[in-house]
From TrEMBL:
Keywords: Lysosome, Membrane, Transmembrane, Transmembrane helix, Transport. Lysosomal dipeptide uniporter that selectively exports lysine, arginine or histidine-containing dipeptides with a net positive charge from the lysosome lumen into the cytosol. Could play a role in a specific type of protein O-glycosylation indirectly regulating macrophages migration and tissue invasion. Also essential for liver homeostasis. Residues 14-433 form the Major facilitator superfamily (MFS) profile domain. It catalyses: L-lysyl-L-alanine(out) = L-lysyl-L-alanine(in); L-arginyl-L-alpha-amino acid(out) = L-arginyl-L-alpha-amino acid(in); L-lysyl-L-alpha-amino acid(out) = L-lysyl-L-alpha-amino acid(in); L-lysyl-L-lysine(out) = L-lysyl-L-lysine(in). Homodimer. Interacts with lysosomal protein GLMP (via lumenal domain); the interaction starts while both proteins are still in the endoplasmic reticulum and is required for stabilization of MFSD1 in lysosomes but has no direct effect on its targeting to lysosomes or transporter activity. The chain crosses the membrane at residues 12-30, 50-73, 85-103, 109-131, 143-167, 173-193, 242-266, 278-297, 309-329, 335-355, 367-389, 409-428. InterPro entries: MFS (IPR011701), MFS_dom (IPR020846), MFS_trans_sf (IPR036259), MFSD1 (IPR052187). This is Lysosomal dipeptide transporter MFSD1. The lineage of its organism: Bacteria, Bacillati, Actinomycetota, Actinomycetes, Micrococcales. Its main location: membrane. It is found in: Cell membrane; Lysosome membrane. It comes from the Bacteria.
Length: 460
């Protein structure tokens, strides 16, 4: 069983924010690369002479590459650290964008997209690894949430300046600009990012974990200076890794299925909304994330033994919202669709709790690998869900002229992914609590907590 690491003085805050900020900027550029082809869809159809269905192959290839790269990237992260991985990843991503800028055949474009996917796969986990290394543990949950939120702004860079360059100057200059941005961020990361503060830190016990941040400020967890090969088996043998995996699994797919592929067709063809209205719903979702993220982060920090409630609560909210929207056979009023997108945002927010589980149950020497494993969960679930929705739509409406009833059947198929995810989550939570109890930490049952609160209230 892991033991709590020795405490150290925190790193200078300005330096910590500069390091995190440089990594974060590289992640924003990665998200820009990830979403750039989405906004250049029409131009891609022309340039590569492909159908819209083939275009969706790009998204699937990219998600699959991203998911497949997570464990190797995580192992590499524990071996070479965030600085080298962010810098190398940014260069690989830039190479992919440069290739995409000049090629004009489908196989070459797909190969370019594989490079973009690999480069993108390095950014998020590397930046997340910097957070517990540089910040006191009380702040880690909020900063982890902020990492996801700020990263999403890469989508705005794709939608606004990249789109403007694309429309004004064309395909090649637009993608060359993204490649240049990638090279620039790679250089910035190499110069500014440091894997750990240069402090006279005590050597961390190899099996120590970062404590949950309750009460007084707990300084950052030391990142081991001497890196050894990480055992994937040790990471997989930790129930906390699986708790993180299934948290990410059950929480990320609802929003990805909606935002990445099927939300706009559902809102337009299914609910009879205009394309502009559909983009307002997506904007509401993005803005809600900015509010929900820090609130969730604060709750995680204050109630670390109840983090799974956030995850289960968000899942219940999303299942309830989908039930409200899908059971009736007629288009839904605006407020119900707003509730739906808010519920989906709440699950995206809850997905980051998965990384917090990894941080507090897996020792720092293996945290990069564990973060990669957690990240696989959400993307595998997203692939399954996106595929299932498409499969049902194909079955019920092979001609592709979808109506509301087709979407009702298709989105209901997500139930399968929820059942798998929730079963895995509850099983992993049980195993994690058993492991905690072996180490002397017992999570009291809810009724006991309520009784204690009542007594406290009465006595007070
Ligand atoms: N807009 C919500 C972002 C949630 C971040 C998410 N949990 C995640 O895993 N992101 C990975 C990435 O590479 O973006």
């Amino acid at each position: 069983m892991a033991v709590v690491s020795p405490f150290r003085d925190p790193a200078p805050a300005r330096l910590a924010f500069a390091v995190w900020g440089a990594g974060l900027a590289a992640y924003v550029v990665a998200v820009t690369g990830r979403t750039s082809l989405g906004v250049a869809g029409l131009q891609a159809v022309d340039r590569f002479e492909i159908s819209a269905a083939t275009l969706s192959l790009f998204s699937v290839v990219q998600l699959a590459v991203y998911a497949a790269a997570q464990i190797p990237v995580g192992l590499l992260l524990d071996r070479i650290g965030s600085r080298r991985l962010i810098a190398t990843g940014a260069m690989v991503l830039a190479a992919g964008q440069l290739m995409l800028a000049v090629v004009d055949t489908l196989p070459m474009a797909l190969a370019a997209r594989v490079l973009v996917g690999v480069g993108d796969a390095t950014a998020f986990v590397s930046v997340l690894r910097l957070v517990p290394a540089w910040f006191p543990s009380r702040r880690v949950p909020v900063l982890t949430q902020m990492t996801g939120i700020v990263g999403s702004t890469g989508q705005i860079i794709s939608a606004v300046p990249f789109m403007a360059v694309l429309l004004r100057f064309g395909w090649t200059p637009a993608f060359v600009s993204l490649a240049a941005l990638g090279v620039f961020m790679g250089i910035v990361a190499a110069i500014v990012v440091r894997d750990r503060p240069r402090l006279p830190a005590p050597a961390p016990a190899r099996e120590s974990v970062q404590p949950v941040g309750t009460g007084a400020e707990v300084p950052p967890a030391a990142v081991p200076a001497r890196r050894e090969k990480v055992s994937l088996r040790a990471v997989m043998g930790e129930p906390g890794t699986w708790l993180g995996f299934f948290t990410h699994f059950v929480s990320l797919f609802p929003t990805n299925t909606f935002v990445l592929l099927w939300g706009v067709p559902f809102l337009t063809a299914g609910q009879g909304r205009s394309a502009q209205e559909a983009s307002v719903f997506l904007t509401v979702s993005a803005l809600a994330g900015v509010v929900m993220g820090p609130v969730a982060g604060e709750l995680q920090a204050r109630h670390p033994l109840r983090r799974s409630w956030l995850v289960l609560g968000a899942a219940a909210f999303a299942i309830g919202a989908w039930t409200m929207v899908l059971v009736p056979t007629t288009p839904r009023p605006t407020w119900q669709l707003v509730v739906l997108v808010l519920a989906l945002t709440s699950t995206a927010t809850a997905s980051n709790v998965g990384f917090d589980f990894a941080r507090t149950f897996v020792p720092p020497a293996r945290l990069g690998t564990a973060t990669g494993v957690v990240n696989v969960g959400g993307f595998v679930a997203s692939l399954i869900s996106i595929y299932l929705v498409g499969l049902v739509l194909d079955l019920v409406r092979p001609d592709g002229h979808y109506v509301l009833d087709d979407f009702r059947a298709a989105f209901a198929a997500q139930g399968v992914v929820w059942v798998i995810g929730l079963t895995g989550l509850l099983t992993a939570r049980h195993a994690t609590r058993r492991r905690m109890a072996e180490g002397g930490v017992v999570v009291p049952p809810v009724r006991e907590v309520i009784a204690r609160m009542r007594n406290h209230h009465r006595e007070g």
